[in-house]
Amino acid sequence: MTDNSLTSNEDRQVNVLTAQEKIYSYLVEIVQNWQPEDVLQKFEHLFLDLVNDDSVPSIEKLFQESNQQEIINTFKRCCYILINNWESNRNHKWIQELVEILAKYKENTQKSISRKNNVNSSIIKFINSNDYQELKLYADRNERQEKTWVNRYASYLLVAQYLDRNNPQEQQEAARKLSQHLKDKFKFELAMYIARSQSAASNENRYVNPSILGDDVLRLIKMIVVKKGVFSYENIANIFIKQTQNQNLDEFKQSIQKYLIYSVKEKEFVRTLKQELSARLSAWQVERNEENINKDLFLRICNKIIDFLTTEDSKVPSKLFVMLLSQGHPLTLVVVLLKIILISQNSRSHLELRIANLIRYYDKYAEYECQGIIYFLEIFNITFAIYAENIEYNLIKMKEFDATDEVQLNLDAYRVFSQLKRDINQ
Questions:
Q1: Is 363:150 a contact under the CB 8 Å cutoff?
Q2: What pLDDT sits at residue 16?
């Protein structure tokens, strides 16, 4: 390659980058100042109809020598500039309109051979890709009847989007906001459903159960919340943190295994977890076994255990996950994951990313084939809404039983009450 060709290529790249920034800035300006329908019409003219406009460089001329990925990346960021702004201003209808326009564009372009060029082909490739499926999550946000079972867990799929540094900043920001919105919505609906379902005077249809577990969700919550007081998961976690502060990595490996199986009653579950986790941890970072545990090692080992318990390659379920889930104790597995987060809050996003990986793996199966993973995800949703969020749940005893009766055997004697947690720093 000659010096002239190198210079020419560099000049072209600079010109493309400059033109891209003009397009991005133009879209930001109009989406913040124009009516959504006018913005969408302009977007359609520029990218789909390839109409020349004096306000921005010609899309068709700009990308006539570009590869498809360069065009797709530009188009994707432009989509998220609109989505992020509409999401912030609650103009959700127009996100749905954008998705529908792209769907119609694909259908019309495939019928018209004359319309196909480099830009058309690249946009069709985008619409046929996982990028478009991710974009559709923003349009499906308020649909009560989700199109697939996977959509019920969109908050985790969105976590995967905002943690991916390869995504444009606008997509990361939109994903973070929508993920939090969906989590808050689930928390609120769960709290209101619990409150109303225990009140004889309330209208049962006023608040919809956000879980698919039906009336069993109330008993499940009682089973989760009953673990309060001195031996609560939070207190045990705090004790563990204090007791392991001066341990080396090898000692910590032993301690965290004991912590995770503490109070677990299912013998087969404990045996499987001990056997598999011991083998995996003993071989992990052996060269650092004598190092004192620090924040970095603490976080890394917690994240690694999450990998062992979910997916180790972010693509397929781990051997341990499949084994534990097949034993029929999804609540116990969820509690073990919860115990990790209670000692390592910074592992929360890593765990949610792994949950997203699992969802994407099982997405290829029909719902009736995924009942085990769906039940696990429902329990995961509820447990983390109770323990790892800002709403506190408590059991209040409403009936008296003999002192010999155990709380777990008389859950019908208790009601669940929820309230916002106090900020101890205030």
A1: yes
A2: 78
